[in-house]
């Protein structure tokens, strides 16, 4: 017989009544949750807003396969929830979904995937949240730990949910914790928890910026005095949320304060951690301001998790970034193309373009309820802009403001068209940067697919240009 899920606030020993666990949202995490619950003896009921599509995604395990109910059927969902012992919404299920109100009305607890994992496993873990950089810092931290001989696996906003990762034979976990995952977390207590930065994002999911920030702040909420909170030094956006921290704070240098007097910082071009020299910044393959900040954050987290300074330095010297995060997308003549498709919010695009001068920006896609006017801040760094996707009119309007100065603006209706337009604008030797500032879901299934299509379009244009006969010389 399965043990009732402990899903109430810390200190509350009330257990939910028996009944099946209703999992809502059968994406990657939903399937992992259903499988983990089934393997532990729970009765599981699955629901999804698109049950037919969800059924086609059954690839991870056969133990979770069963009827997927239509969660858009209010009467059916009410029946499922009212008889449940708990409801576990997948991270992407927004707070406005009917399952939340129905659970509240029926007195049925709503449990997060992170809290399930916390109940089932006690091995140490590091958790990382932030508007930008969390994937990079998660991967860096995982690699630093493994180089140190501490077996670790990354989970969360990766292809592996934490409830699945805990079946691994490792010593520790590194969790990329989005605001979606943290929103309902109550017992999730990382040994080391880092909040990297804060900027408007996902306002189509959260009620407002405060709700978004409050969700991220939950990364520290259940920590105790023996845990560590990693905080960006002097970050005025995050500082108001640190007052309730009960764990020990470790600070790292934020992008604009690289010489700040904090625990992990840069002094005279050297990354210093707790007064020990780690590595010279000049040795790092990636040295833009956000790269240096990510390196400092990962160093702080990894050292707090027991990594050696030598392993940290070795990983930083070898780390050349992740796909679709300002990665090289090819070169045509003297024109360099950069794939930053992971930049799905204006804040990320601004951070990326500040490292360029006179670049050609390809931006647009599906706006997530954010103010694209923030992109105007990078006008001094761009020579031209190619606008794409649903947000193309807003992108053009943003850079048409008099304060932006003269910027060449073009709209493209496909990625190959955007690449060719950017190439023409970039001649003879400028950089072209795909950094959309928007989600990809108008044209693509993911930012990865968008980035791959960009890379393909660059390669195809290069082949086509090479096959053209040279222009006739003037006589």
Q: What does this 3D model show about the protein?
A:
With 475 residues, this protein is of the alpha/beta class. The protein has 3 domains: 21-111, Rossmann fold, CATH 3.40.50.720; 115-318, Mur-like, catalytic domain (UDP-N-acetylmuramoyl-L-alanine:D-glutamate ligase, 3-Layer(aba) Sandwich); 327-467, Protein-Tyrosine Phosphatase, Chain A (Alpha-Beta Complex), CATH 3.90.190. 32% of the residues lie in helices and 19% in strands. The protein contains 15 helices and 19 strands. The chain has helices spanning 28-39, 51-55, 74-82, 98-106, 113-120, 134-147, 162-165, 179-182, 209-221, 289-304, 309-318, 346-353, 392-399, 415-426, 447-467; strands at 21-24, 44-48, 68-70, 86-89, 125-129, 152-156, 172-176, 192-195, 228-232, 248-252, 264-267, 270-273, 276-280, 327-332, 335-339, 359-364, 382-388, 408-411, 431-434. The strands form 4 sheets. Strands 6-7-5-8-9-10 form a 6-stranded parallel β-sheet, sandwiched between helices. A 6-stranded mixed β-sheet has the order 14-15-19-16-17-18, sandwiched between helices. Helix 6 packs across helix 10 (289-304). The longest helix has 21 residues, at 447-467. It is globular, with a radius of gyration of 24 Å. The model is unreliable at 8-17 and 60-64 (pLDDT under 50).
Task: Give the neighbour order of strands across the main sheet.
Answer: 6-7-5-8-9-10
Shape: globular
Head-to-tail CA distance between termini: 90 Å
- Helix segment count? 15
Enumerate the spans where pLDDT stays under 50 for 5 or more consecutive residues. 8-17, 60-64
């Amino acid at each position: 017989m399965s043990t009732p899920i402990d899903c109430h606030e810390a200190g509350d020993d009330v257990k939910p009544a028996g009944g099946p666990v209703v999992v809502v949202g059968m994406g990657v995490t939903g399937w992992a949750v259903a499988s983990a619950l089934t393997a532990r003896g729970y009765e599981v009921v699955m629901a999804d807003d698109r049950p037919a599509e969800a059924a086609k995604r059954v690839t991870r395990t056969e133990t979770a396969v069963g009827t997927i109910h239509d969660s858009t059927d209010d009467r059916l969902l009410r029946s499922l929830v009212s008889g449940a012992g708990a409801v576990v919404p997948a991270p992407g299920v927004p707070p406005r979904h009917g399952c939340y109100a129905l659970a509240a009305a029926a007195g049925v607890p709503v449990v997060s995937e992170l809290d399930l994992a916390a109940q089932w496993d006690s091995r140490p873990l590091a958790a990382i949240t932030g508007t930008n950089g969390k994937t990079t810092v998660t991967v860096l931290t995982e690699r630093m730990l493994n180089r140190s001989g501490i077996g670790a696996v990354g989970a969360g906003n990766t292809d592996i949910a934490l409830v699945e990762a805990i079946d691994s034979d490792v010593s520790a976990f590194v969790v990329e914790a989005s605001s979606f995952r943290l929103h309902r977390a109550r017992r999730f207590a990382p040994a080391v928890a880092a909040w990297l930065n804060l900027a408007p994002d996902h306002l189509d999911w959260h009620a407002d910026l405060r709700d978004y920030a409050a969700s991220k702040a939950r990364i520290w909420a259940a920590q105790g005095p023996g845990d560590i909170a990693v905080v960006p030094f002097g970050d005025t956006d995050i500082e108001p949320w640190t007052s309730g921290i009960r764990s020990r704070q470790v600070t790292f240098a934020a992008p604009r304060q690289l010489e700040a007097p904090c625990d992990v910082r840069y002094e005279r071009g050297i990354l210093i951690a707790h007064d020990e020299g780690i590595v010279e910044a000049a040795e790092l393959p990636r040295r833009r301001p956000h790269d240096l900040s990510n390196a400092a954050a990962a160093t702080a987290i990894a050292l707090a998790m027991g990594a050696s300074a030598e392993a940290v330095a070795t990983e930083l010297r070898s780390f050349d970034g992740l796909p679709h995060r300002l990665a090289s997308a090819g070169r045509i003549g003297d024109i360099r193309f950069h794939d930053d498709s992971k930049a799905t919010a204006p804040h990320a695009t601004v951070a990326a373009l500040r490292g360029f001068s006179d670049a050609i920006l390809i931006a647009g896609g599906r706006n997530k309820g954010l103010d694209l006017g923030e992109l105007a801040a990078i006008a001094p760094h761009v020579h031209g802009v190619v606008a794409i996707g649903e947000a193309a009119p807003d992108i053009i309007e943003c850079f048409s403001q008099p304060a932006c100065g003269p910027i060449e603006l073009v709209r493209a209706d496909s990625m190959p068209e955007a690449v060719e337009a950017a190439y023409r604008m970039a001649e003879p030797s400028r950089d072209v940067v795909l950094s959309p500032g928007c989600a990809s879901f108008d044209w693509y299934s993911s930012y990865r697919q968008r980035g791959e299509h960009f890379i393909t379009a660059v390669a195809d244009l290069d082949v086509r240009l090479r096959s053209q006969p040279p222009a006739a010389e003037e006589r």
